[in-house]
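Researcher: Next sequence.
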Amino acid sequence: MIDCAEGTQIQLRRSRLKMQNIHNIFLTHLHGDHCFGLMGLLSTLALLGNTATMHVWGPTGLKEIFQPQIDFFCSGIDYTIELHEVSHRQSAIIYEDRSVSVSTLPLRHRVPCTGYLFQEKSLLPHIRREAIEAFDIPVSQINNIKTGMDWTTPDGEVIPNHLLTTPADPVRSYAYMSDTMFAPELAEKLQGINLLYHEATFTKEQELLARQNFHSTAEQAATMAQKANVQQLLIGHFSSRYKDESILLREAQTIFPNTVAAYEGMTIKL
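Model: Next structure:
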């Protein structure tokens, strides 16, 4: 999960997502609208009988702010909470498992702030079901074939791997750029990703105000997507001054047509 604002538990229940399935929380920065829901969620997980370790990632200050609260409110719980402070000044891989890696993206905000890049690891090819049946391939050999081996039949015939498999699904990638000034130097790290979320607090008419408050305009978000050749742009974090948020969407689409505006409960399939 990325960020944990006040009301997170309500949205999780509305979305019918199980809180117990969350094992990593990536906080972009320590402003309240991005982390006020954390302690409530951690406490609720204890009441639900969670036993899996929860890893919370965030920039400098994470431990200073949250460790005392965890010590007080979560004393005696049946699971471990580990806080990991990450650098907001340089990009680095901070988490990795068999299916995904997570890298930080140094952002420009009033306080230490980091975005995150989620990259799926290369997948194995698919084995043809008809090949399994035609050549009587045992289950024990399926993974070997997926990793590139040919199959030798009992009578010695060698079946090339390319006849046994189909290409793997394309890997997917997603970047989350929370509160930040325009940071075009990050475009290189985002080249060709499937989906970019980029804040778009103001319109271009308020570019000076955006810069003063360390935020971006919709035009700048779209420019980032264009420079990075991403497949789709998702904008959000709109200022409340805009009663009609479509003005921000139109501004972004002028530069990067494949832009959508975020709303509560939205889902996007990569």
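Model: The longest strand covers residues 100-106. The two ends are 17 Å apart (CA to CA).
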